[in-house]
Amino acid sequence: MKVRRCAFPSAQAFFGLTPNDKDFILEQIFVLMYYIGFSYRDAYRLPVFQRKWFIQRVVQEIKNSNTSKGHTSAEQNALSGKMRTQSPANLRRFT
After folding, report:
1. Are 58 and 35 contacting, i.e. CB atoms less than 8 angstroms apart?
2. Whole domain around residue 22: which residue ranges?
3. Cα four-point dihedral sign 42, 43, 48, 51
């Protein structure tokens, strides 16, 4: 296999995402889709600072709800109507 030389050596180090970066970005997109209801396209096109802000805000809300109400069991959540019966509409698969 031949090794190709690039005319611009800095181009190889600068462009492209590593597989770890892709996993991290997809994880952020999943959180936005699952908890907030963004579409994939909207979440992908968000600037990075806004994506991080939305995720931090969701984490803050979850922490606030856990501290104010205490720990509840899954049965209590189901009885009070706080448990999701289905995934959000954007994530459902129609076969």
Report:
1. yes
2. 17-57
3. positive
